[in-house]
Design a protein that fits this description.
Length: 205
């Protein structure tokens, strides 16, 4: 009812989601509930007790593989249990996918993704250490502000003489702590924002 004929574009979309933690797990759930089933997820981690404040389904799968656990709840997805590294990014075939959704933390892999996949990329930066989801914004990587992680990414991309644009989800809220605490109201909102951006891009095609 909301999308009309554009809904067919979601059913036919092919998505690669990198990372299914505090951001990626909510993005996956949002995509799946909106009719996008051809999703490949990649993550190397297993759930532990510390994940339960922010990662979907973690309380049911303590000690288990994240991607294997996700397959139980979203049976039509494809899974890859592996760590995303710059070497992997440079060798993987991204061509079949309509969008690449980056919900990982590793800055080196993020830089490689930007250089290789910027035309299809939606990336999230730092969602930890914050409490206010209303401070979340979307801009190109060059227009991000108030986020130290995004600043590091911009700096490293400039060093590589990378000048292209791609959308980034970030928060302007200053970090409240030095340790890496997190709040699902922000990490989940990052994931929902990523899902929204993906859907908007797909229906605009």
């Amino acid at each position: 009812m909301l999308l009309g004929d554009s809904f067919d574009k979601l059913e036919g979309a092919k998505i690669l989601l990198l990372g299914v933690g505090g951001v990626g797990s909510f993005c996956l759930d949002c995509l799946y509930r909106n009719g996008i089933k051809d999703i490949t997820i990649i993550d190397f981690d297993s759930y532990d007790e510390s994940n339960q404040n922010r990662q979907m389904w973690s309380e049911l799968h303590n000690g288990e593989s994240k991607v294997e656990s996700m397959k139980e709840h979203y049976p039509e997805i494809e899974i890859m249990d592996m760590k995303i590294t710059p070497e992997w990014v440079n060798s993987f075939d991204f061509e079949p996918y309509d969008l690449i959704l980056d919900a990982i933390d590793d800055i080196h892999a993020k830089l490689a993704l930007a250089q290789r996949c910027y035309k299809k990329l939606i990336s999230a930066t730092g969602s930890a250490k914050r409490l206010d989801p209303t401070k979340i914004e979307v801009a190109t990587i060059w227009k991000t502000h108030g986020d130290r992680f995004a600043s590091k990414i911009r700096y490293e991309l400039k060093k590589r003489r990378f000048t292209k644009k791609y959308p980034v989800i970030f928060s302007t809220e200053p970090a409240r702590v030095k340790v890496k605490g997190s709040f699902v109201g922000v990490t989940g909102a990052f994931g929902m924002t990523m899902c929204s951006l993906a859907i908007q891009k797909l229906i605009e095609k």
